[in-house]
């Protein structure tokens, strides 16, 4: 029987029915996926079933599009540089000044922070937003302080919305109680929960909807592009529009440079109705450290985000070149609320699918389908890039970044970090801490106090190294402890343009 079926299939293909055969296979895969999702829904009841049902509708749509993809999402030859007026310099926006009544603009704004990530890459348990980054303040503390300062200064009501994931929701909600008496209304909604898919069978790896034991590995939050659907589905989008809110300012919660900018906000709300800009992407000039960041291009008459994952291998070097693609996406975005509602209701939100391969603890290969929030720029009317100062991009992804923001390079006021006026160069030093510093706990033990870094250009530390109190680092400093050796930088040391290697241990006697 199998042989007969095989012969039939081959003859169909031979008769020029390859496209038809592929379509049949796609439909079969889709049908199997739908059956499996129904089985998963049958493992629960009530509210959880309803939430998962909504999530699965989004996943089915993504999976359908994933099966339709027939090649690269962009043709390299069609890529053009964006027209001059589609990326405006920040100075030009700021030169217009601010209106007398800033409060009117602020009352149309909602601040949204992407809060779905865990602190695992920095060796921490729980949400990344709860890691202390400065004077015992967490990312979330600083965000609340910034918005509270705005609300008090201008007598406004700018709310904070957190997009949590199933990984961060419970812990975040517990901590929110401490902000009850702050002058900030805080709302949360949850990203969708999508099933990881077996790389071979293209079927879900989970057998039920629970998050217990091994089954927990079967689920993932599908990237920040999910914000549009999950925000809309939560009912919060409509609620905010009813309150007269017009724009959201979206950014990663670990980007400490992403504060509310009154000049960009004024630019948005002062546009005439027919010409309203529905989407602003803050971009900034590339340095060698940012060559992998997504960039803005003109493609088929629309402004579009191009990510490195979409670039054909033969053009990756060209994509990374600072001369051709000079700017990258900071993921600070200003988006019209009514436009999100319109596009969701028209099912017109089109974002490229990112296929993210993973290996589970048991060795099973899976894929997760994701989207990026900035990729929707092409769907919005009158979209604009604004080339902002580098200071608006200050992400803390590693302990090397943490060292910078904890140091005297920055001063902290009302939750905002600004570069110290005592630093002669506006650029941040390049800091590279070795694997002994990866986890926050280990990093903190290795510094008795954070060194003076006002005149530092470059710091590389490798191996078992500790720093005493009141150390000063200037110029280029490289400290390398060889395997089995240890280097203790003595309290009060001043290292300027120095290489320290070998074994330096100061012992008390």
UniProtKB/TrEMBL annotation:
Enzyme Commission code: 2.7.7.9
GO terms of biological process kind: glycogen biosynthetic process; UDP-alpha-D-glucose metabolic process
Residues that, per the record, bind UTP: 128, 191, 223, 254, 397
Positions contributing to substrate binding: 224
Enzyme class: transferase
Keywords (A to Z) from UniProt: Nucleotidyltransferase, Transferase
Catalysed reaction equations from the record: alpha-D-glucose 1-phosphate + UTP + H(+) = UDP-alpha-D-glucose + diphosphate
GO MF annotations, alphabetized: UTP:glucose-1-phosphate uridylyltransferase activity
Pathway in which the depicted protein is active: Glycan biosynthesis; glycogen biosynthesis
Annotated InterPro entries: Nucleotide-diphossugar_trans, UDPGP_fam, UDPGP_trans
PANTHER family: PTHR43511
Function, as annotated: UTP--glucose-1-phosphate uridylyltransferase catalyzing the conversion of glucose-1-phosphate into UDP-glucose, a crucial precursor for the production of glycogen.
Family: Belongs to the UDPGP type 1 family.
Record text on subunit structure and interactions: Homooctamer.
UniProt-recorded name of the protein: UTP--glucose-1-phosphate uridylyltransferase
Organism of derivation: Oreochromis niloticus
Lineage, opening ranks: Eukaryota, Metazoa, Chordata, Craniata, Vertebrata
């Amino acid at each position: 029987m199998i042989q007969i079926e095989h012969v039939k299939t081959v003859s169909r293909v031979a008769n020029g029915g390859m496209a038809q055969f592929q379509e049949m296979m796609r439909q079969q895969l889709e049908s199997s996926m739908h059956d499996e999702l129904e089985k998963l829904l049958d493992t629960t009841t009530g509210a959880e079933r309803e939430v998962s049902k909504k999530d699965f509708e989004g996943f089915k749509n993504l999976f359908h599009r994933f099966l339709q993809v027939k090649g690269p999402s962009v043709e390299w030859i069609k890529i053009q540089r964006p027209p001059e007026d589609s990326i405006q310099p920040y100075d030009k926006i700021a030169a217009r000044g601010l209106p007398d009544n800033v409060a009117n603009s602020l009352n149309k704004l909602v601040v949204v922070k992407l809060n779905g990530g865990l602190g695992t890459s920095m060796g921490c348990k729980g949400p990344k937003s709860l890691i202390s980054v400065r004077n015992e303040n967490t990312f979330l503390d600083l965000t609340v302080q910034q918005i509270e300062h705005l609300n008090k200064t201008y007598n406004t009501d700018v709310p904070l919305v957190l997009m949590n994931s199933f990984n961060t929701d419970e812990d975040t909600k517990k901590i929110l109680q401490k902000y009850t008496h702050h002058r900030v209304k805080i709302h949360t909604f949850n990203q969708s929960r999508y099933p990881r898919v077996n790389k071979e069978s293209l079927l879900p790896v989970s057998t039920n909807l629970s998050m217990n034991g091994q089954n927990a590995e079967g689920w993932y939050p599908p990237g920040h592009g999910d914000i549009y659907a999950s925000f809309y589905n939560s009912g919060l989008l409509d609620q905010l529009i009813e309150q007269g809110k017009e724009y959201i300012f979206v950014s990663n919660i670990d980007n400490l440079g992403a504060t509310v900018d009154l000049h960009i906000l004024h630019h948005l709300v002062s546009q005439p109705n027919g010409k309203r800009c529905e989407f602003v992407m803050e971009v900034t000039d590339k340095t060698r450290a940012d060559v992998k960041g997504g960039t803005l291009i003109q493609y088929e008459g629309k402004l579009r985000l191009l990510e490195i994952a979409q670039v054909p291998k033969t053009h990756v070097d060209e994509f990374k070149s600072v001369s051709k693609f000079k700017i990258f996406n900071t993921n600070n975005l200003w988006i019209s609320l009514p436009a999100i509602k319109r596009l969701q209701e028209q099912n017109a939100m089109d974002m490229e699918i990112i296929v993210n391969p993973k290996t589970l603890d048991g060795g099973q290969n899976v894929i997760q389908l994701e989207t990026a929030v900035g990729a929707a720029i092409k769907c919005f009317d009158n979209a604009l890039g604004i080339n902002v100062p580098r200071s608006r991009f200050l992400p803390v992804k590693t302990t090397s970044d943490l060292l910078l923001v904890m140091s005297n390079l920055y001063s902290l006021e009302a939750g905002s970090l600004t570069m110290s006026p005592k630093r002669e160069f506006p650029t941040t030093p390049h800091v590279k801490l070795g694997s002994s510093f990866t986890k926050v706990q280990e990093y903190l033990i290795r510094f008795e106090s954070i060194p003076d870094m006002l005149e530092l250009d470059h710091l590389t530390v490798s191996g078992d190294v500790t720093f005493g109190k009141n150390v000063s680092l200037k110029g280029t400093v490289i400290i390398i402890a060889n395997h089995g050796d240890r280097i203790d930088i003595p309290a009060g040391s001043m290292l300027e343009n120095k290489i320290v290697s070998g074994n330096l241990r100061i012992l008390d006697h």
